[in-house]
Amino acid sequence: MKRAVIALGSNLENPAAQIEAALAAISALPGVQLLRRSACYRTAPVGFADQPDFINAVCEVASDLTPSDLLAALLQLEQEFGRVRTFRNAPRVLDLDLLLVEGVSQQDAFLTLPHPRMHERAFVMVPLAQMAPEWQIGAHGTAGAIAANLDASGVIRLD
């Protein structure tokens, strides 16, 4: 089994509840074991700003699925939660992004690992640094070091 990191986000239909339900659904996927998760964070939307704030979190799983199969399972969960892809950065019930898979570097039409923009996004890096500051993010450094150098003023931890 390989460890992997998944980002979760929601800004529709009780987002905090969507994140908690998604974590339970991820842990119930065949071949996937939830190892740990971050706290939830409230963040302003990126890109399309005329929408509610997001609730974001990350989790670490162990999986015997291939990275592509894990991503396919996550996309299926998004659909089951009612995600409709209308336009880039649109409001959504659930967004699941496969960020990292231990020891895997991949770039194809379906999946790029590590996620190509994660190191630029405080809404991803702050929760990841809180959960697992030691994760190496490609050539960019550790999650903790990257998060320390991002403007995280709009990322608010919910307790």
Structural overview:
The chain is an alpha+beta fold and 159 residues long. It is built from four helices and eight strands. The strands form two sheets. Strands 1, 2, 3, 4, 5 and 8 form a six-stranded antiparallel beta sheet that branches. Strands 6-7 form a two-stranded antiparallel ribbon. A hairpin with a 4-residue loop joins strand 6 and strand 7. The protein is globular. It starts with a strand and ends with a strand. The relative contact order is 0.22.
Distance between the termini: 31 Å
What percent of residues adopt helix (DSSP H or I)?
25-40%
Shape: globular
* DSSP helical segment count: 4
Task: Give the H and E element order.
Answer: EHEEEHEEEHHE
The biggest beta sheet, please? 6 strands, antiparallel
Instruction: Give the percentage of residues in beta strands.
Output: 25-35%
The rounded Rg comes to 14 Å
Secondary structural class: alpha+beta
The whole-number mean of residue pLDDT values reads 95
Point out poorly predicted stretches: none
Using DSSP, what is the number of strands? 8
Keywords:
159 residues; 6-stranded antiparallel beta sheet; two-stranded antiparallel sheet; 27% helix; globular
In short:
This protein has 159 residues and is α+β, with helices and mostly antiparallel strands. The protein is built from four helices and eight strands; from the N terminus they run βαβββαβββααβ.
